[in-house]
Amino acid sequence: MTLNQRTLLRMSPNSTARKVFLNRTVSKAVELKLDDTGRIKIPEKHLGLAGIARDLVFVGAMDRFYVWEPERYAAFDSEMESQLEDVQTDFEGSYNAVMATGGIRGIVGEDG
Length: 112
Hints:
The protein is mostly helical. It is about 45% helix and about 10% strand. It has 5 helices and 2 strands, in the order αααββαα. A two-stranded antiparallel ribbon has the order 1-2. The two termini are about 30 Å apart.
C-alpha cells in the first residue's frame, strides 16, 4: 500500500479533502494493458486532459513515470528548477537524519 493510499484511508470518508482528491485523481484513473508488442494505448480522453495532441515527453521518476505535453513539461521543469535551492536544505537534512539512524536497508551511504 502506498503512502497516498494509507493517508486516504486515515481520512474520514466524509472529509472534503478526501472527496476532492478521490474525484480528481483516483476516479479518473484507467488501467492500461500492454499489447503483444509491449505498447499501451492512452485513451483520447486522458490525452486531452493532459493537453497532448501529437508529441509527448516520457519522464522517468524512480518508481514511476509521467507522460507530459512537451510545453507543459518544460514549464513544470522550469518551476522545479527554480525551487531547487529552497528544498535542497530540507532534502539534505532528511537524508542525513535517515543515514544517521543506520540508513535505509539496501542503500549504502557515501562512505561505504
